[in-house]
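seq as requested:
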Amino acid sequence: MTISAVPARSVLKEACALAGFDPADAEPIRIAENEIWRLPGEVIVRIARAGQWKAAVREVRVARWLADNEVPAVRALPVDQPVDASGHPVTFWVELPPHEIGTVQDVVSLLKQLHLLPVPDLPLDRLDPFVRIAERIEAATSLSEGDRGWLQGQLTELRKQWERRPDGLPECVVHGDAWVGNVARTPGGPVLLDFERASVGPPEWDLVSTAVTMTTTREVTPSEYAEFCEAYGTDVTQWEGYELLAGARELRMTTYAAQHAATRPEWQAEAQYRVDCLRGRAEPRPWHWKGIM
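struct tokens:
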């Protein structure tokens, strides 16, 4: 559990009052870019960053669409939401039973169900693999100006490549951040979480997250990845657009670490190491990146 020094309990109280919940015995679960709280009665409260209203609306609507289509996913509570509490969009969810982090096979089983669904009439944007990366680079003040400038150059180049990316599988609704951390393994089976980046785009983007954990960081073994590909029916590393999407994913992983290293000195070495890897200053892939947050 990651808890910051000053979680926004005042925002929690305001949101609960608007939605009709009692925050008296609220417990913080995770305080990071978004705040996650538990209320008595199996209620989870998610406080998003200010300015993320559109994403919060999308999360709730996607969750309800998945429920209608019987896809195992975290369920939004049947209340009028999100609510605006001091500029923060706040959403309310059914607490999951005791669970653990999902597996690679859990990820692929849920992606297959998601990608087969027809695109719904929901306010879904086109996939943007580079959302918030520029802001992360700007916030990464523990890095040198040279490293930040290089990251910005990489972002610019990858954006250009994205605009002329090769054709692939038919577009569909994509999760946007499909990795084991966004799957919970419950007694009833795996459940999909976190629809902040749900959008319409190439399904390869959802597949590349697992592929990168094999080719880039070797958190997934080649045999585990082969099982993933067999289950889904394709190997995204063999697609001619793989290097582009893998580069975008690596840049996201690096700038995420660098952004938080600016305020968490204990992560500065990891953030710098990731930059050094991308810039060719470290050993060849696979790299030994350590998780943060």
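The longest strand covers residues 88-94.
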